[in-house]
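Bench notes, afternoon.
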Amino acid sequence: MDTRQQSLTRWVRQFSGFEHAEAEPVSGDASFRRYFRVWRRQQDGEQTPFIVMDAPPEHEDCTPFLAIARHWHGHGVAVPAIEAEELDQGFLLLEDFGDQLMLAGLTQDNADVLYREALEELVAIQQLPSPPDYPLPPYDAALLDREMALFPDWLLERHLGMALDNGARCLLDTTFAFLRESALAQPEVTVHRDYHSRNLLIRPGTGQPGVIDFQDAVRGPVTYDAVSLLKDCYVSWPEERLSPWLEIFRQATLEKGLHHADPDTFRQWFELMGMQRHLKAAGIFARLAIRDGKQGYLGDIPRTVNYLIRASARQPALRHFHDWLADTVMPLIEEKIGPAPALEDTPL
């Protein structure tokens, strides 16, 4: 048991019912945060599980998490209730949604139901204003650009060892500008920013998924979270499954007045937004491996870049970028990481 786990355990034991609690590791994530399960003993002997989040203050600021969690929870979104907090140490005691991630629970048979429920929850999130004590930052041009820059900086140059000449950099700059302008042209809503199958939990007895990892929420493009969910970096679906889900989402958000786009316009927004997100994600996966030693994320890069190749093939304005990705970048990825799975294939 490390020193932070010891401190976390002492902190939890001050609360009634937790006097003999032991912090059991549950998981970490792509940040410095870690999660532990503790049990509160009731007077009748029953035990109730809770989650303790360990967020070292030198690396993580819990203020956005607390503000968003309380605001969304108060509006009926299924985020964990806050039971206790100690910001100086970076400890939070949270409601426990269990361990059944949507990714692990997905099957060909239940996917329609689970995605419909996740999209319904997403529409509810998108309609919420910013928390009164924490105005959500904008998903502006600077943030979009910083995210896309992760792709050349961490994946192409640092992981694949590519030397990008002026032509390649010009191609990237032109592509990034095209994607940035499309994103900024979309109507703005509340964006979770990481709304996918590893951040949604199936909760027995309710059709409402548990929502976690929302502390980076912003105000931004209406299709961003739909891309995170339907073009998930961890699981892919064929077009005949994805397209109806996207249309369900388009119609639901249209009815709520969040946009006025027809199916073709909305699909174009979705495709280009997906490219921006997958550039970011591929770069982050490489950074996690190089900087943080989290090698497991490398295996998600081929699928993520394959999304980019498929999407760019549908964009005449990005033909040169598509050819460069397919002919130059993907062979290096296959050589150094592994082959890209076909998007029609799912691991279910």
